[in-house]
Amino acid sequence: MYSKFFKRAIDITISLILLPFVVVIGVVVAIFIWAEDRGSVFYLAPRRGKYGKIFKMYKFRSMKMNAPDIRNADNSTYNAPDDPRITKVGKILRKTSVDELPQLLNVLTGDMSLIGPRPITVNKPLSDYDEKRRVRLEVKPGITGYSQAYFRNSITSEEKLEKDAWYAKNVSFAMDLKIFFATIRSVLFRSNIYNNSNE
């Protein structure tokens, strides 16, 4: 009942309440992003949503225009404080997670939820997905999620997928509430922001 009805109602209600504040913050952020390199304000990232549907995920651009895609040994995105691809404004956006705020638009359109597994990249056909990758696609991806709230970039990409598959099987209001408060704590204390492991 919660997953099918109440979760969506909560997503819409909270997103509409937050939207005016996000718009105000977005105007300020957009000015700083454009002023630094005259590039685009948003980055539209192709991602897989529920049941593998591909959609464009909104983010404030934190990297230089046309930055190359660099990966760690486990295929997770390279993310380090000395990453030369990140702009000066982008470093602040990432540390504060403000770059994720435009995803409220994805929540309102129904492609995402406030809480769920982080959207998976489109780098292989669905037929090549293993069980944990298929299971996590049974729920909508979220702005924040179990792995994001508790581990962020301190664990490998495969570990994140396993934990998010567990979440997809155990979605509940109580779990989402815990993730919500854990996310606030993680952002405030800037926990596990970077992962530049090449092991």
Word description of this protein:
This protein is mostly helical. 46% of the residues lie in helices and 11% in strands. The longest helix is centred in the N-terminal third of the chain and has 36 residues, at 2-37. It is globular. The termini are far apart.
Task: Give the arrangement of secondary structure elements.
Blueprint lengths: L1 H36 L4 E7 L5 E7 L27 H9 L7 H6 L3 E3 L4 E2 L9 H6 L5 E3 L1 H5 L6 H13 L3 H16 L11
Parallel strand pairs: 3-5
Antiparallel strand pairs: 1-2, 1-4
The portion of residues assigned to helices is 40-55%
Q: How would you describe the oligomerization state of the chains in this entry? A: single chain
Poorly predicted regions are: none
Cα-atom radius of gyration:
16 Å
Please, what is the average pLDDT? Answer: 89
For the termini, the CA-CA separation is 42 Å
Strand order across the largest sheet = 2-1-4
Helical/strand content category: mainly alpha
Counting DSSP H or I runs of 4 or more residues, the number of helices is: 7
The global form is globular
Beta-strand portion reads 5-15%
The tally of strands reads 5
Please provide a brief summary of the model:
The chain is mainly α and 199 residues long. The chain has helices at residues 2-37, 88-96, 104-109, 131-136, 146-150, 157-169, 173-188, and strands at 42-48, 54-60, 113-115, 120-121, 142-144.
Search tags:
mainly alpha, 3-stranded antiparallel sheet, 7 helices, 46% helix, globular
